[in-house]
Amino acid sequence: MLGYLLARAGIDVVVLEKWGDFLRDFRGDTIHPSTMEVLSELGLLQKFLAMPHDETRQMKIHIGSREFVMVDFNGLKTLCPYIAFIPQSDFLNFIANEGKKYPGFHLMMNTEALTISEEGGGGDWFKSKKWREPI
Ligand SMILES: Cc1cc2nc3c(=O)[nH]c(=O)nc-3n(C[C@H](O)[C@H](O)[C@H](O)COP(=O)(O)OP(=O)(O)OC[C@H]3O[C@@H](n4cnc5c(N)ncnc54)[C@H](O)[C@@H]3O)c2cc1C
What we know:
By secondary structure, the chain is α+β, with helices and mostly antiparallel strands. It has helices at 2-8, 33-41, 45-49, 88-99, and strands at residues 13-16, 30-31, 54-56, 58-63, 66-72, 83-85, 105-108, 111-113, 126-128, 133-134. The two termini are 25 Å apart.
């Protein structure tokens, strides 16, 4: 998301991802109302909602024969008063693909950051698994 925002602002940005895909450690599949507000401000909400997802407006529990509403998003004064469920890799691919529409956005998969360079140049500060050697 930061890479997307920087590229959108006209800043050249390189996003490094050490794995070949975003289907990694589970980071949750829920997109919250506040996140969708941000997506709306960025002009991405309609495209996001066009992807397959589930929407949860209330959370209930059943105790015996009785039903209790534990959480109710319907009262939220927001564009999307619900939680959207979508696989995290779908969401990250979506953001990455939107980022690629900007010329300054560069996503390097299979590329592991090795250290931080304060000089901003020189040295083998990342390596690409694809090419198997520092570049
Ligand atoms: C269990 C869990 C559930 C969550 N559920 C939700 C949720 O439902 N909704 C929600 O909005 N938020 C949720 N969060 C919070 C959300 O996932 C984080 O705020 C978000 O993932 C942070 O993004 P990030 O890019 O900073 O870090 P990460 O998502 O951790 O991304 C870091 C990336 O860097 C890569 N990487 C690591 N080391 C290197 C290296 N040396 N070189 C190159 N790449 C590297 C990793 O492979 C990873 O893809 C959850 C978090 C956790 C832990």
